[in-house]
Structure formats: C-alpha cells, structure tokens
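Quick start: load a record and inspect it. Here is DinB family protein:
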Amino acid sequence: MNKTLNQFGKTIDEVLKLKETSRTKLCEAISEGKWSIREIVGHLYYWDKFNLEKMVPLMVQDADLPKFPDHDQHNEEAMTFLKDYSVETIIDNFVVTRKELSERLSSIDRDVRFTIGGGKRKFSGESFVKIFVKHDAHHLKQINEKLDS
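Running the structure step on this input writes:
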C-alpha cells in the first residue's frame, strides 16, 4: 500500500505548485462549460472530505460501507460548499485533508476487506485508494493541460 499511498500523496505536491499560478488563471474554466482549476481542486478536496468522514472510519473487516453518493449531486454540493472559499483556502484545505486521509488510510490493516454499497467486490484499503489515484490522474491531466495552454 505504501507505493499507492505515495502516489496518492504526490497530488499534494502538484496542488501546492498551483500557488505559483495567478488567481485569474486558476479561476477561469479549463474549457467552455468545464470547471476551473479552483473548482477541480475543490472537487478533489470534497471527495477527500467525504472519504475521511464517511468511509475510512468504517473500514474494518467484512464491513459494508455506504455506497458512493450520486456523483453529479455530490459535485454540485461541492461547488455550493466551496462557493465562498478563496482559491488559496481551497488549496490549503485540500492539503490538510489529503494528509489526514493518507495517514488514516495507512493505519488500516492490509488484510482488512470490505464491500461498498452492498456490492460483491471486496476492497482493501489499497484498492480503495487506487480508485482515487486514477481520479487524481484524470484531473491533474486537465489541470496541466490548462496550465500549458
């Protein structure tokens, strides 16, 4: 799990680099009808917050964790929750939450298996994190494409 958690933690470095980018660039849509970098980081933060509060505390042997929320609704809630936050605050909140989430995930015994939302698939802490490593990669690609444009 260390390798996976290291990858998960590397997103912190990528997000911290954004502090060197102008607020204007961080707040403009990455393309028409899409989120801004600010909103993407907020989206990542809101998922971390959800996992930290609702999922990780329940990760014990044979547990059935709640199903993931409807993605569209969850994302809409994230944007509402973050509307009054500055881009700097969102970045700082992401960093603090990602560090805490990584610490909590690292403390889950590697042999623990659980399901999500009544599903049959057994997850470990590591396979759970891999979902979000892929999610990070998708959004980091979007961010980097915007920064390179």
